[in-house]
Structure formats: structure tokens, C-alpha cells
């Protein structure tokens, strides 16, 4: 192995995309193995590689890590993106959990029936504009700092910029009433490591399409 973290998942966003974002934001290069068949997935299970028979799988520092939250916790801690003390870590955790709730709606959207997609877009917009984005707009306005926690770049900032861009793909004007988040998006997008990740040819995955949905169903559904 090259020493780079090795990510095993489908060639698409899913539950691995926050991991890609966090590693990229930390300036860490990584390798990827893409699952394309049910047989590849079953072999990982048979070989005992997947603790709970689930991916994402990240091989890092001699460990074979599963469970997205555990992976993200480790990466954030390893690369100093997890606050300076327990209080800052608690804030980061709360922000990340909230963003994850919103992103779960985005994650499941491609798998919804065509007749429900418009309704689901409306639900994402309602949740984003009434429940989640107002929290971060208020935080940024109240403390007047560039970052969410401790005036230092953290995992929470990475999760938020990922969420903003993902929601904007479906609702382009979603930030129209959030000037603080507009400025935050601009700042984050111009950070060197994130700017690089947003360029064509980076490991960032495109929005899920029908091909990705078919691959997910082929690999994971018996």
C-alpha cells in the first residue's frame, strides 16, 4: 500500500462522500476501490473485512474502519479538525448531527419514486430554510467569525459547505435569504484544499444519476 487512506465504496456519493470531503479539506490524498458487483461486496463480507457487513470501508493507519460516523470522528481528530476541547467538540458534534439529518434527505432522494420527487424537493427546501440553515445563519451572525466553532476551520465547516452545495443543486436559490451563509459559502469555496476538491477531475462525485441508483440496487439488494 502507498500509505494513503484507501476508500472502498461505490463510484458515487452516498455515505462515503462526507469522508472524501473531510480528507480533501484536510489536504489528504486517498485511493479508492469501487464496488461494481454483488460478488465484490460478498467477498468483503466473506473475508471478514466489514465488521457489520456494511460499507463505507476506510483503511487508514493500519485499521479497517467502518461506520461513517466513526470514520469521520477519527479523520477529524487526526487532522486537527475537531476543536480544541470537549466543549468545542460538543458544538461540532451538534452541528454535524443536524447537517447529517438534512443530508439524509438528500441521500435518499435519488431512490424515491418519480411521482414523489417534487414533493420531496419541497420537503428538502422546507427543512433547509426553516430548520437547519437558520441555525448556522444565526451562529455566524452572532459571533461574527469566519468559522462555526472557535474561529478555526473544523469538521462542522466542511459538513456545512457540502450540505449547502448539495441542496443548491436541487434548489439553486436556497440561500437567497441567508447572507451569512452566502458569505460562508464563498469563503469555504476559496479555501485552497476545498477549491481543489471542487475542480473538475477531483475525487468529488457528481450528483447521483439512474446508473448510480441501479448500481446500488445491484450491489446491495439480494
Automatic annotation (TrEMBL):
User: What is this protein identified as?
Assistant: glutathione transferase
Q: Which organism is it from?
A: Pedionomus torquatus
Q: Which GO terms describe its molecular function?
A: glutathione transferase activity
The gene name reads Gsta3_1
Claim: Iron is one of the keywords in the record: no
Residue intervals of the GST C-terminal domain: 85-209
Domain spans labelled GST N-terminal:
3-83
Provide this UniProt record's keywords sorted from A to Z.
Transferase
Cited PANTHER family: GLUTATHIONE S-TRANSFERASE (PTHR11571), GLUTATHIONE TRANSFERASE (PTHR11571:SF230)
Q: What is its EC number?
A: 2.5.1.18
Supply the CDD domains for this chain: GST_C_Alpha, GST_N_Alpha
